[in-house]
Amino acid sequence: MHRRDFMLLLAAATASATGACTTGNDASAPATSLKPVETSAAPPTTPSPSPTPEPSPTPSRSGLWLQDGPPELPAPSAPDSVITGLPESVGNTVALTIDDGADASVIDAYLDFAKDSGVRLTFFVTSCYPGWTDCKDKMRPLVESGQVQLGNHTVTHAGLTSLSEAGILEEVSGCETFLKNTYGVTGAPFVRPPYGYRNATTDAVCARLGYSTSTMWYGSFGDSGLLTEDVLLGEARKWLGAQRIVIGHANFPTVTRLYGQIIEILRERSLLTATLDDVYFGPGHNRRV
Q1: How large is the greatest C-alpha to C-alpha distance in the chain, in angstroms?
Q2: Taking the domain 83-280, which CATH number applies?
Q3: pLDDT of residue 31 exceeding 90
């Protein structure tokens, strides 16, 4: 046999054997790259070992990345019946708390923000809004890891001081039932009274349901209603600080365009974020019921 004919025959046989290792319907299988055929008259009797594949590069983090897990915190102690800020012992730590949830796309964007930055968030859920159900598949892993905490902001955002005892019980217990049924967690002991309306009576009724800590705030982004980007960013610069509980709202998309600037404020001030659970019960606290 002529040398040229032998080489063509050998190449065809190699291609046929390689094709038998893949399925014709596997559209995801990479195209096979053949090595040059040896020029010796007889092929080697033992195959050469396959080269060890190089490890895949570690995915680069978003430019938003701020922190890995909770900050270093002192030993936890139970919260008071009313809190407006964090204990001084937490140092340069701030609690970002996000209320309401009227716009599902804003809830969704906050979850992406948490995943892209490592920021830890406490959502105060108003359970009548469908976004809390619509976003549950993306939310659950963050809740289970402890990066996101869920608190109680009632069912319909009714001012508790205007309600009867039965009305308060219905609003708070209804939201608690939603958290248990949808996420398998309790929001207790943290309840945020809508509009900040609370008194000794509302506190006592909430405490009967396990909601013994009325969670107020030190500052707010002011975005329960629609703001311009400049105004919202000005509020963020005004209020983000150590040992503060700061409110944002998942109601309008303005904040979703400012995540990078919010991270820069936190970096400039050497602030890390923590959930209320991180501070008062310790990282990894199990809220499951």
Answers
A1: 102
A2: 3.20.20.370
A3: no
